[in-house]
Amino acid sequence: MAVRLASPQGKWILLTTVLGSSMAMLDSTVVNVALPRIGRDLDADLAALQWTVNAYMLTLAGLILLGGSLGDHYGRRKVFVVGVVWFAAASLLCGLAPGAEVLIAARALQGMGGALLTPGSLALIQASFHPDDRGRAVGLWSGFGGIGAAVGPFVGGWLVDGPGWRWVFLLNVPLALVCIPVALRHVPESADGKSHGRFDVLGAALGALALALVTYALIEAQEGSVAVALTAVGGVAAGIAFGYVEKRRPDPMMPLDIFRSRQFTAVNLVTLCVYAAFGGFFFLAALQLQVVSGYSALAAGTALLPTTVLMLLFSARSGQLGELIGPRIPLTVGPLLCAAGVLLMLRVGPDASYVMDVLPALLVLGLGMVTLVAPLTATVMGSVDAARAGLASGINNAAARAAGLLAVAALPLLAGMGPEAYRSADAFNAAFRRAMPLCAVVLVAGAVIAFAFVRRPAPDCTRPECRMHGHVVSPPLERPPQPEPGSIAS
Fold it and tell me: Which pTM does this prediction carry?
């Protein structure tokens, strides 16, 4: 039986999905604020800090498409709960990690849990609620999730300056202890009766392996060793093998024929550009504010809030504007505004004034993000057949996370950051000034691609349900709405 949003069960379902998705969303943003303290306490170099971010993004990006398929087949509630338990256990291991190596391994495990619960939270809403309430439920879910994303860096900074950086991870444990029993008691089970049970595990493994090897080669490239070169070659080979497997499999995780759509390909190239720049920017900006400008972790986390707040306030209106005028202008103007905001960060140095130096840059950057994110999601979903809209959104979300992953690996290398750069304000500031123009160039490239190739989708195309958006490191993950929740079993 379909659940109504106003019912007690409907409110419990909304609560558990918000808690689950917020856990994964928070860890995508909060950890950046804690990096300087993690490095100091664990005596870690810059490469270890890069891996602290990238280990999570690697497994999440590589497995998120597979995670959604597992939920559809085995039961969305079951896989969601497994994801929450897995994520909480990995978070506990992160919080107790005695050294950087254990922390990095635990972060990779966190990403695996996130790949199960991230697509599962929205799938539970769409499969559980009555069709008349589904749109409002998705809106509330995305809105509360955005609020969590906005509060996250503030809470993370407060924890780092107070109890310590380990509590950034340990906080997930009590959230999971609330989420799990509520899900088991109040969320109905559902599955896709048409799911055939064949999963592209080989494709997922090859994709994750390719990302891992290339990321390793980029992070360790300054050593210039033969091992690094062989790793890079292995990453390229794994990527080629991934493409071969996806082309040959009858049910691939990423059907390559979806890229026959010129619009879909163009929008994903724009996604790669803008989210590579965002990933690199937010990784380095949190360090710049603390290492160079002398901000505390709390002040740095709070300083970055304007981008998320602007997204929450205006992303829905931006989506409406994109439907009215088409996506070409927003996807061209948005990256250019972001590039201007990134270049304004060049004013942020020692003893930077928040009001005069930091805030103007983040406001311009936030306006650019508001302009482009909602139209980008709508264009991705509108560029393929309605039956493949969920797949298209998943590929776009994974592409954005992979772009951020590679940017965090490559940008310090391109900017000439040494292993100990974050321990020296002067050295880090000099590298930061080289890195920001590189981010701006990538954003301009995204604007050029959008202007040259993006066109208005068909008027009857699938539209996103997540109108409000506050996550700054990846576009919203959409799934096609379930036609009727008839497959729900109590």
Answer: 0.91
